[in-house]
Amino acid sequence: MGGWGVLDDPKYPNIPGTVNLNEEVDASKLEDWEYEEPKKLGDIVLQPQPTDSPNDPLNWSMATKMAILLILSLTAGVTVSLGPMITTGFDEISQAFGVNADTISFNIVGVMQLTTGSGTFFTAAAAAVWGKRPVFIISAIFLLGTNAWGFFAGSFMSLSIMRAVQGFAAAPLETLVSATISEIFFTHEKGKMLSIWNLFVMGGVKLGQLIAGFIIQNLGFKFTFGICALIYAGILPAMYFFVPETFYKPKERETEVIFDKSSLHVYEIVLPERRNSGSQRRKIFQGRVSNVSFWRMAVKPVPLITFPAVIFSAFTYTFYAAGLTLIALLQDTIFSAAPYNLSSSAIGLTNLPLFAVGLVGTLTSGYCADFVVQFMTRHNNGVYEPEFRLVLMFVAATLSTVAYVGFGYSVSAGANIVIPIAFLGVQTFAVPFATSSMFTYVMDCHASHAAQAFVTMNFIKAALSFVMSKFVNGWFVQVGAKNVFMTVAIANLAVSAFSIPMYIFGKRIRSVIARSDFHNSF
Predict the structure, then answer these.
(1) I want to staple 511 with a disulfide (CB 3.0 to 4.6 A). Which of 12, 108, 127, 375 is the partner?
(2) Is 39 exposed, middle or buried (0-12, 13-18, 19+ CB in 10 A)?
(3) Phi, psi at residue 509, to the nearest 5°?
(4) Helix (H) or strand (E) run with residue 267 in it
């Protein structure tokens, strides 16, 4: 039996993902000439261990790292808002082009979700071969262009094609931001930093609908695209100047031979690596950063479904993220009808308290993610297990189940609007706990496969969102709020329950994967 109920595997002592964050340095180790004392921050052993190079992103100043995180998180938040922001304008789009709600939901939201999920295979592969910086910048350029296209679109067909292209352009912001976080921050920092990214994503979903509601009511739905185009026009220069390439591969160090005349000895000195100049850091294309095949990397996320940690995290994350999409798709249908009869701007306003709750939930989950892990690690002789991340799923599963059941019953009963909004608040508070838990778990279990694992996770999420967009409004009208959300609650709880066996047996599963020739071939 391992620490905190995580089962050890006696057959394989050095299991990837298990690390010592509190290594004690005694006299016997210091006497060993081959021993290299690990780098620490206070009493915490840094994982991963940074090199001595000033070009290693792990060694960059916190100001530089935070600038990268905030710019990419803002871009991700705006990009995430592109999907749900238009949902409050379904009635106007229906009147303008003569199409029904399910058709709008499928073409304008569902297709975008699907092309985003599909596009991640290629954008993650491109980032692995040519670096993340050019992929981010090209993505921002295309997002600016497609939003301008949406502003001038004169037909539903043009708008639908634009959304398909826009979805592909949005793909890098789905997977590469979290992968960037894993490259520039240490294990003990990832929970808090992911919560900042989650905060912007949550803001994009909730505030995006709120702001879009007022824009649609006062200016029309096309102005949502026009204003987003202006925002990307501001993001582009910030990205160009302050988001350098974060992929780092240690270079062979230069040496210099020195002859000491006094002792007649020859010394070979390893020279420190020179810091890249500002112009070098600002170069968009820096050539290939890896010799791997683009097409090999593009298909790599597919076999990752055979990694239990990846497929478990993918389905769990999918159900929680899809819950936000489900509610976004149904908000207009629920709150524009009796007994609520809300306007587009009023429906948007319902997201304001949800954003406030999401803000608290995101910050709380980020703090808890690192606090719980550090507490459990300290009481496990300094040994950290990725399964410690799954403790947060108890909070996520409990709150989300209560939220779905309560929301379904309150809407079905026509309760005062405060009650269903309160239950949506509970669900909004729960989601960051699941998101933080799943992303950090995958990062720590399979760090070298993280970017491609996020592709797998986001594609499964996109596929489910795509399917939902085709029928969810019709399903809601047919069976009612109570049946829809009871079904969602049961499915969500069933998926979350897999956290228990993964927590107990996760280390042994990692051991099996580490010893598997098949899995080591990727």
Answers:
(1) 12
(2) middle
(3) -65, -40
(4) strand 265-270
Residues 6 or more apart in contact with residue 275 via CB below 8 angstroms? 54, 55
Residues in Cβ contact with 383 at an 8 Å cutoff, skipping those fewer than 6 apart:
3, 18, 19, 20, 21, 377
Looking at per-residue confidence, does 474 or 68 come out higher? Answer: 68
- Which residue carries 């239950």 as its tokens? 423
Phi and psi (nearest 5°) for 344? -60, -45
Q: 272 Cβ partners below 8 Å, 6+ apart?
A: 52, 53
Asked whether the beta carbons of 312 and 460 are under 8 A apart, the reply is no
| Among the ranges given (36-40, 116-120, 393-397), the one the predictor scored with the smallest mean pLDDT | 36-40
Helices then strands, each counted (H, E), the chain: 20, 6
Find, among 507, 503, 495, the residue nearest to 396 by Cα. 495
CA distance 105 to 132: 31
- pLDDT above 70 covers a percentage of the chain that reads 95
pTM of full prediction above 0.85? no
Question: Residue 268 is inside which H or E element, if any?
Answer: strand 265-270
Q: Is the peptide bond before 303 cis (omega within 30 degrees of 0)?
A: no
CA distance 196 to 192: 7
**DSSP β-ladder status, 19-20 and 383-384:** antiparallel
DSSP 98: T
Contact assessment for residue 428 and residue 357, using Cβ atoms and an 8 Å cutoff? yes
DSSP state at residue 41? E
Q: Which residues are registered as beta bridge partners of 266?
A: 259
Query: 384 burial class (0-12, 13-18, 19+ CB within 10 angstroms)?
Result: buried
Q: Note the pLDDT tens digit of each residue in 372-398.
A: 988 999 899 889 999 999 999 999 999
Per-residue CA distances from 390 to 321, 383, 446 (Å): 17, 16, 15
User: pLDDT tens, 435-456?
Assistant: 989 999 998 898 888 888 889 9
